[in-house]
Amino acid sequence: MTHSNSILRHLAACALVALSGTGCSHAIKYNLDTVGVARGSRLASTLDVETLADQRAKVPQNRIALQSPQSTTVNGVDMCVNSEKRYDEGTVARQVSTMIQSHLEKRGRFQQVLLDQKQATDYHLTGTLKSFYGAQEQSGPAKVGAMFGAIGAIATANLKSPGVIRIELTELKLLRKDGSVVAQLPDISEVVKDDLPVDAYCAMIYFTVDEHLRTAVDKLSQAVEREVEQAIAKPAATTASR
């Protein structure tokens, strides 16, 4: 099954679930088949990705996703948001970290990429999840299509509406097993304001956020690989002083 077909099946399932007055749960993931193998020789090192510290609650912009249901109203406009209520409680930072680990593993430059096992690897990555949200206007045509159930949901799957995606990974550090700092990495920010795919049940916004997470993680992966490559090429004392 292709990733697009998986999304369509999920939208159809949401149409059925909506009849019961509940909503669809969501797991953070994107199609790893779209992640290309990295250029460059394989690094003679292993890497651990530590679960990101979750600081989203400290950022006012995140409140719409953290506190609202997935279908909400903002300044009189009906909106879809990737509500925290549709993720397993307390797991968002862990799920994002898992995708970082899987993405780096798929790129293939490290001998092994683990999650939360820093004592078992040569290097480890730490950081903070500052923002992870999407919001878009609800679509009247999508709601009309929903009147025809699952078939209508699929038929209107190509509709779009204005929206914004914001993903921010900050305080990113690459460290050795002994805790010495190899590099302070630049913040990763993926901010998009555009017409985004929309559906009647506010399920599509979750998939759209996931797809932009892929872009953010690819930027991070390249930065990590570059720093490890440089660390291997330089004496340890030089990189420790950075």
Walk me through what this model shows:
- This protein is of the alpha/beta class and 242 residues long.
- The chain has one domain: 3-Layer(aba) Sandwich (Rossmann fold), CATH 3.40.50.10610.
- Helix content is 36%, strand content 27%.
- The chain has seven helices and nine strands; from the N terminus they run αββαββαββααβββαα.
- The protein has helices spanning 3-18, 63-67, 92-107, 140-146, 149-155, 204-233, 236-240; strands spanning 46-49, 53-54, 71-74, 77-81, 112-115, 123-137, 160-176, 181-184, 188-197.
- Strands 1, 2, 3, 4, 5, 6, 7, 8 and 9 form a nine-stranded mixed sheet that branches.
- β7 (160-176) and β8 (181-184) form a beta hairpin.
- The longest helix has 30 residues, at 204-233.
- The protein is elongated, with a radius of gyration of 20 Å.
- It starts with a helix and ends with a helix.
Give the secondary structure arrangement, pairings included.
Blueprint: H1 3-18, E1 46-49, E2 53-54, H2 63-67, E3 71-74, E4 77-81, H3 92-107, E5 112-115, E6 123-137, H4 140-146, H5 149-155, E7 160-176, E8 181-184, E9 188-197, H6 204-233, H7 236-240
Parallel strand pairs: 1-5, 1-6, 2-6
Antiparallel strand pairs: 3-4, 4-6, 6-7, 7-8, 7-9
Oligomer: single chain
**What CATH first level would be assigned?**
Alpha Beta
Count of domain modules = 1
The helix-and-strand class reads alpha/beta
- Residue stretches low in confidence (pLDDT < 50, at least 5 long) are 15-22, 144-148
Q: Which percent band covers the strand fraction?
A: 25-35%
Largest sheet: 9 strands, mixed
Q: Count the E strands.
A: 9
How does the overall form come out from the CA principal axes?
A: elongated
Provide the CATH topology.
Rossmann fold
Order of helices and strands: HEEHEEHEEHHEEEHH
The CATH architecture assignment turns out to be 3-Layer(aba) Sandwich
Radius of gyration: 20 Å
Calculate the mean pLDDT score and round it: 86
In DSSP terms (H or I, runs of 4 or more residues), the helix count works out at: 7
Helix percentage range: 25-40%
- N/C terminus separation: 47 Å
CATH superfamily: ABC-type transport auxiliary lipoprotein component
